[in-house]
Write a structure and sequence with these properties.
Oligomer: heterodimer
Number of helices of chain A: 7
Helix content of chain A: over 70%
Strand content of chain B: under 5%
Distance between the termini of chain A: 58 Å
Largest interface: A-B, 53 and 54 residues
Number of helices of chain B: 4
Number of strands of chain B: 0
Structural class of chain A: mainly alpha
Structural class of chain B: mainly alpha
Order of helices and strands of chain A: HHHHHEEHH
Chain lengths: 223, 107
């Protein structure tokens, strides 16, 4: 929507482009396009999960031993934080749909805050591993018959969690910008495509972590 | 708010808040089950159980938070494609490892 349109009070009226019959069809097309983008993201992380699977099948004992070196309870707390943030952004989109912009802005801001909390917790985790000399290529000092497999696990660990954290950081920026724009009166019941698509992205980031959690933090815990 | 609701067509009215809250509690409960199950010695079943619960959590997020349960067939197809191709990749990968025979070098 142009700033001119917004300035004359049309912020709740979606601009239906010529190729669409109505706003509903336009919104469905946007959702479809977003899902196609998200499918590429699934395959991006899928390659990392496939690499992890190959390495774990080859070195099961080493991966179990390495997984036990991660902080399971911090990983569990990080998962809980992302699950709560997903529910908050879903409620935020709902609030826009009923024109409660104040609530929507607050819920989007809360989602971004939980994203920041997730990254901070990850920072503590990385620091702990650095102090235990578990960072391959930088400071890795482990010995024993499983040390090479442990090193391989931590390469995978930093690769998967690093790329995931990058996605979380991008999501935080997008959601923060949207929170500000919603607070300024943008978006509404008939024009909530952008917040809706941002929420879809955030949920996918959450889903990726749902699978990272058992693979990285829980392998070999019962041994 | 009521005016906005009146403007909205029947199929675009938002879900009740309690639906989202129930989903969140279910997700947190499943998270607790995942963590506890990982600590119980179940041999080779620990990982499949953990991943199975993860699939359940992902379906809840997709169905309720991402509104896939109400989406058009085309959108559902698009949202499934990434997971379908990923399943093919992982399935064929594991099949390769399960059936590969290491042939000794002839020299």
């Amino acid at each position: 929507m142009t700033s001119t349109a917004a300035s004359i009070g049309m912020e709740c009226t979606p601009q239906v482009q010529a190729q669409y019959d109505d706003a509903k069809q336009q919104r469905e097309a946007a959702t479809l396009g977003m899902w196609i983008f998200l499918s590429t993201e699934i395959l991006f992380f899928g390659v990392l999960f496939a690499s992890y699977t190959v390495c774990r099948v080859l070195y099961p004992e080493g991966f179990a031993a390495a997984s036990r070196r991660t902080d399971m309870w911090l990983g569990t707390a990080e998962t809980a934080v992302l699950l709560v943030s997903s529910s908050l952004i879903a409620l935020g989109v709902r609030s826009i749909q009923i024109d409660r912009r104040g609530w929507a802005s607050a819920l989007f801001a809360a989602t971004a805050s939980l994203g920041i909390a997730f990254l901070v917790m990850h920072g503590f985790e990385y620091h702990k591993e650095y102090s235990e000399h578990l960072v391959p290529g930088l400071d890795f000092d482990q010995t024993g018959p499983l040390s090479r497999a442990v090193e391989l696990f931590f390469w995978m660990y930093y690769c998967i969690t690093g790329f995931h954290s990058l996605h979380v950081a991008i999501g935080i920026v997008v959601i923060s910008v949207l929170a500000v724009r919603i607070a300024r009166g943008r978006f509404g019941a008939l024009d909530c495509t952008a917040p809706d698509l941002a929420a879809l992205y955030w949920h996918l980031v959450d889903i990726v972590w749902i699978f990272v959690y058992p693979l990285i933090y829980l392998a070999g815990r019962s041994a | 708010v009521s005016a906005s609701r009146e403007r909205l067509p029947q199929d675009s009215r938002p879900d009740p808040v309690r639906r989202y809250l129930r989903t969140l509690f279910a997700l947190l409960a499943l998270l607790a089950v995942t963590a506890i199950a990982a600590l119980i010695p179940l041999g080779r079943w620990n990982t499949p159980i953990g991943l199975g619960i993860s699939v359940g959590k992902a379906l809840l997020v997709m169905g309720i938070f991402m509104h896939e349960s109400e989406a058009r067939a085309l959108t559902r197809l698009a949202s499934s494609l990434g997971f379908i191709w990923l399943s093919a990749l992982m399935g064929l990968l594991l099949l390769d490892f399960a059936t590969r025979v290491w042939v000794p070098r002839p020299w």
